[in-house]
Automatic annotation (TrEMBL):
The keyword Cell membrane applies. It is a multi-pass membrane protein. The chain crosses the membrane at residues 84-109, 129-151. It holds the Pfam family SCAMP. This is Secretory carrier-associated membrane protein. It is found in: Cell membrane; Cytoplasmic vesicle, Secretory vesicle membrane. Signal peptide: none annotated. It comes from Salvia splendens (Scarlet sage). Keywords: Cell membrane, Cytoplasmic vesicle, Membrane, Transmembrane, Transmembrane helix, Transport. Residues 1-31 are annotated as: Disordered. GO terms for biological process: protein transport. Belongs to the SCAMP family. Probably involved in membrane trafficking. One of its GO terms (cellular component) is transport vesicle membrane.
């Protein structure tokens, strides 16, 4: 016969856990934590300084001090170089992470621009090519025109590549530079 509960541990050295509040699992329940006012914070800082607790003055970064940082006065001389390297590494890491956020944001913006500027027109063009290919089977004149269009497009592409590499004289310039480099290496 079970009652639905676990019998108490008689020889346990652990004390039972306190009961949870009724709204413990309620994510919308508000937590009433009083925040100190500026005068209250100043009063506590003065009390801490009277008690002998050293409050460090925030001095870094100089334009908006948020932390205390004084390697020259607080770190032993033989460890200062190591501490400066560690601090520079930390700054580099922070800069790198900030740069990554900027780069990723820029990439997402450019991706949106790329979609609008070249992907969507290309998609729409290919969406029109499929019906054109279907139409070629029915009408010979449309098929011949379509074929001539593509031949001309590839001809233009080939001419553009040829002019870039051969027509601008870059090939002879590269051969001349290679010959000069070989002559310098021989001397």
């Amino acid at each position: 016969m079970t009652t639905g509960s676990v019998p108490p541990a008689v020889n346990s050295r652990l004390s039972p856990l306190p009961p949870e509040p009724a709204d413990f699992y309620n994510p919308t329940a508000s937590v009433d934590t009083p925040l100190d006012s500026a005068t209250e914070v100043r009063r506590k800082e003065e009390a801490a300084s009277r008690a002998g607790i050293v409050l460090e003055e925030k001095n870094w970064p100089p334009f908006f001090p948020i932390i205390h940082h004084d390697i020259a006065n607080e770190i032993p001389i033989h460890l200062q170089k190591l501490q400066y390297v560690a601090f520079t590494t930390l700054l580099g890491l922070c800069f790198g992470l900030l740069w990554n956020v900027i780069a990723v944001t820029t990439a997402w913006i450019k991706l949106g621009g790329a979609y609008v500027l070249w992907y969507r027109p290309l998609y729409r063009a290919f969406r029109g090519i499929i019906p054109a290919i279907d139409l070629m089977g029915d009408h010979v004149l449309v098929g011949v025109n379509f074929l001539l269009l593509w031949i001309r497009a590839f001809q233009h592409l080939g001419h553009t590549v040829y002019m870039y590499f051969r027509g601008s004289g870059k090939a002879t310039e590269m051969k001349r530079d290679a010959a000069r480099g070989a002559l310098r290496a021989a001397i």
